Amino acid sequence: MKDGLPLPRRYLAVGALCLGSSLVIIDGGVANVALPTIARDLGVDSSAVVLVVTVYQLMLVMLLLPFAGLGERIGLKRTYQLGQTIFTVATMLCFFAESLPFLLIVRAAQAVGAAMALSVSSALIRATYPAKSLGSGLGINSAIVSASAAAAPTIGGFVLGVAPWPWVFACAVPFALGSLYLGRALPNPKPHETHFDVLGAVMCAAMFGLIIGGLESAVHGNSPVVSAAIVLLGALIGVGFVRRERSESSPILPIDLLGRPIIALSALSGFIAFSASMTLIISMPFRLQHEFGFTPPEMGIMLAPWPLTNVLVAPLSGWLSNRVPSGLMGGIGMIISIIALLLIAFLPAHPHWYDVAWRMALCGSGFGFFLPPNARLIIGSAPRERAAAAGGLISTVRLMGQTTGATLVATLLAFGIGNGMTPPLVAAGLALVAGLCSISRLRPAIRNPQRTEVEDEVPTLKQAR
Fold it and tell me: Do residues 28 and 111 make contact, with C-beta atoms less than 8 angstroms apart?
């Protein structure tokens, strides 16, 4: 079996994957900047226009695992290219949106395309890079995601300054076209010839959609009973879904992979880490404005070091993960993050902008040190024929963690403790749990008894010393 793509084809495939990651992140981020303008132009309430963002995120969470399963059966490259095509066409339809319902339909279609591409991107990264360089590849992809997240608000603000709001979404089209063109160089692993469980895919989407939608409505809605009923229905569907998946040879919900302790711990620690990071990122603007009185431009300067530091740290972390155990690196990353989160929680009474900026940079470096090795361990510990499912698990864990963090902040705000030192303290507690989960992966009993070719490239703790 070939170990990665030959040069220079590998560079073209990496370019396609980087552009694909950029467009998903940028399209999700630029919408936030445009929401007030969209509400004014379409004549809708501010609370209603937030659906432009939530519909996109919710569809992603619902569809990632089903599309990962579909990608294993129809081909990773075909799924990726089809997703980019759907995304591009849907984005162009934004120019015809003259009502909020139509825009929401278009955003849902964009999310379908984005979910198809994102669900198989990690598996394609694994097939693109040699096993010994997989960590570096995931680190580069993580850096691209961080850079795109940092650039999205700036791009959105610039576009709104010179053009109508539909052009905000259109700014992602060049990335999609570039990814489609370079995507011809992507690897094309042989599809897994088994049937696609349509009912299981529907149950998976319903489980995530109802549980997340119910939790969101509990925070923002007026009927706790209805919200609880929605969550309960999603949980009941989830119970039936899990029981059904246990009898499947290639389940959509990767129970077979989660049955491996090292993957289960990696997924759990990733979920908790993303929850912690999102808890801080969303809560910080409220604290900076309400407690310290900073202006929005000042807040942008103070928050930017997080993703910018991530851009620098993630490739280094990915490179190191080829040589140092991921459990050790994850533990070190979370220790750095905990120290930074405590420093943020106990900011001076009258902080200067750089008091916040260097703490955010330190915190971003900690999470940047943790995430690429964690993703490498998940994708590298899965059998090659289940790489798409492992990639879908990585993306789902990230989105679920981010959604949980956002919901947690909304809950803290509802109780009146979301704009002070409580959110960073909560985030520090979550980071501690994530770090403990990461370090526990160093135990010999946790490591997979059946090692993959990627795992064989990872040194043991004794070797690392």
Answer: no
Label residue 216 by pLDDT band (50, 70, 90).
confident
Half-sphere exposure of 264 (CA within 13 A, CB side): 9
Neighbours of 250 (CB within 10 A): 19
Task: Report CA 440 to chain centroid distance, whole Å.
Answer: 23
Q: Phi and psi for 457 in degrees, rounded to 5?
A: -85, -10
pLDDT at 351: 92
Phi-psi region of 248 (alpha: psi -120 to 50; beta: other; left: phi over 0): beta
Name the packing angle between helices 387-414 and 198-220 (round to 10°): 20
User: Which candidate, 116, 16, 4, places its Cα nearest to that of 62?
Assistant: 116
49 or 451: which leads in pLDDT: 49
Classify residue 200 as left (phi > 0), alpha (psi -120 to 50) or beta. Answer: alpha
Task: In whole angstroms, give the CA distance from residue 335 to residue 337.
Answer: 5
Closest CA to 264 of 393, 385, 387: 393
Side-chain half-sphere CA neighbours of 41 within 13 A: 15
CA distance 230 to 226: 6
Which letter, b or e, does each residue of 363-380 get, where b requires 16 or more Cβ atoms within 10 Å of its Cβ?
bbbbbbbbbbbbbbbbbb
From the centroid of its chain, how far is CA 259?
22
Helices and strands of the chain, counted as H and E runs: 19, 0
The three-class DSSP label of residue 292 is: coil
Question: 203 exposed, middle or buried (CB, 10 Å; 0-12, 13-18, 19+)?
Answer: buried
CA distances 423 to 78, 115, 249, 371, 433, Å, are 42, 30, 42, 21, 16
Which of 230, 11, 252, 218 has the alpha carbon at shortest distance from 119? 252
List the structure tokens of 218.
């509990």
pLDDT tens-place string over residues 38-47? 888 888 876 6
